[in-house]
Amino acid sequence: MKEIFAEAGIEVNSSNRRRLDRVIHQMFGIGYPDCSTTWRRLRQEILTDPHKRRGFVSKLKSAIR
Questions:
Q1: How far apart are CA 31 and CA 54, in angstroms?
Q2: pLDDT < 50 positions in the chain
Q3: What angle, 0 to 180 degrees and rounded to 10, lies between the N-to-C axes of helices 17-28 and 50-64?
Q4: Distance of alpha carbon 29 from the chain centroid
Q5: Which of 5, 24, 38, 42 has a beta carbon 3.0–4.6 Å from 10's, enabling a disulfide?
Q6: What integer pLDDT is reported at residue 60 of this predicted model?
Q7: Range(s) of the domain holding residue 26
Q8: Overall number of domains in the chain
């Protein structure tokens, strides 16, 4: 995930970590406390496909700013 945040120009720290987590959960439409499902989908669907990865990074940038 560090690479994804770096691509998006986002520095993860204690003040924004929870917000980032919530935003990513919302992007996948998965309830906030269900972390394992969210991260599994991210690894399987996004990180393995360069096109989807670029789209995810773009959406993440927009959602955070």
A1: 24
A2: none
A3: 130
A4: 12
A5: 5
A6: 93
A7: 2-64
A8: 1
Residue 65 has what pLDDT? 79
HSE at residue 38, side-chain half, CA atoms within 13 A, is 17
Spatial distance between the Cα atoms of 8 and 30, rounded to a whole number of angstroms: 21
Write the pLDDT tens digit of every residue in 45-56.
888 999 999 999
Interatomic CA distance for residues 58 and 55, integer angstroms: 5
Cβ atoms of residues 56 and 4 within 8 Å: yes
Please report the pLDDT score of residue 61 as a whole number: 92
Residues, the chain, total?
Answer: 65
Residue 4, both tokens: 């994804």
Q: What sections of 1-65 are H helices per DSSP?
A: 2-8, 17-28, 35-41, 50-64
